[in-house]
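Inverse folding, one chain.
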């Protein structure tokens, strides 16, 4: 199980960090790769284009943990209606910074701005509230809303990497009841066992993702979601990991090369180095949850 990194599970830590990253030159900060990396942006765009062929409406996009990255601003024109893009972060300062940046970039677009929300991806009620708040907002705006609102594309750039550093957690409350409903034969002791925080997020996000939805992710690690690869499964899930693997199917896992960087050592010798990160695409199955 992951070692505890308590500060990474603190909203206060992330709020202060994002606030400081948005000050000064206001360039923000990007995990793993710059926000203008064409490889990752193309990966996102392709997923959105594919989603557009699966739904008659404008695809709905959920950006997980925008932080102070300007990738969120690039997503303004990712779909026809910016209101179909939701940025969801642990830190209140990320919401404030994103809203300010968007107002500055599109001062005349008050009626067609992206949505900015805060909450905890490890808490099912918080995740469910994304759809609930969005539904209330759209109804108040006079729009026709089908309930529940489900997302077609989820975007994650290093967020799950950070969450994975948080200590293992056991499902609680609403999530336990949902597991009992959709996996009634799973032994109670398995439901209450601590699991990787990344699996907790996968279970929670499955509740607001449309069947066929794409979860596109950039990660530092190349061994995530081995359990989600296609394989023969038992009739009854034998673990929460196996339950999650029924809700999400791993379709893509490949390396993404970072642009070469010049590094000068203590002897004044300059060399170019390259780093590799990993692209993932998880596909939401049609298994109810």
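Residues assigned per position:
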């Amino acid at each position: 199980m992951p070692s505890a990194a308590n500060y990474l599970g603190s909203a206060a830590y992330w709020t202060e960090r994002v606030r400081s990253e948005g000050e000064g030159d206001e360039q923000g900060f990007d995990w793993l790769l710059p926000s203008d990396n064409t490889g990752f942006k193309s990966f996102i765009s392709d997923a959105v284009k594919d989603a557009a062929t699966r739904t008659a409406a404008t695809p709905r996009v959920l950006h997980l943990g925008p932080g102070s990255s300007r990738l969120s601003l690039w997503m303004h024109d990712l779909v026809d209606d910016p209101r179909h893009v939701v940025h969801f972060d642990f830190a209140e300062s990320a919401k404030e910074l994103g809203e300010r940046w968007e107002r500055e970039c599109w001062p005349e677009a008050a009626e067609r701005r992206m949505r900015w929300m805060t909450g905890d991806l490890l808490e099912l009620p918080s995740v469910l509230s994304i759809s609930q708040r969005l539904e209330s907002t759209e109804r108040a705006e006079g729009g026709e809303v089908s309930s529940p609102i489900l997302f077609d594309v989820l975007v994650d750039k290093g967020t799950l990497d950070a969450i994975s550093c948080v200590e293992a957690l056991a499902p609680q409350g609403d999530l336990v009841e949902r597991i009992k409903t959709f996996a009634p034969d799973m032994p109670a002791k398995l439901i209450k066992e601590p699991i990787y925080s990344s699996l907790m997020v996968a279970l929670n996000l499955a509740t607001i993702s449309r069947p066929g939805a794409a979860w596109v992710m950039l990660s530092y690690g190349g061994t995530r979601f081995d359990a989600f690869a296609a394989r023969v499964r038992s009739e009854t899930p034998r673990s929460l990991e196996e339950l999650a693997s029924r809700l999400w199917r791993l379709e893509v896992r490949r390396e993404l090369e970072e642009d070469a960087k010049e590094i000068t050592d203590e002897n004044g010798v300059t060399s170019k180095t390259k780093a590799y990160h990993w692209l993932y695409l998880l596909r939401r199955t049609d298994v109810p949850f």
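The mean pLDDT is 87. The domain at 6-284 is CATH 3.40.50.150 (Rossmann fold).
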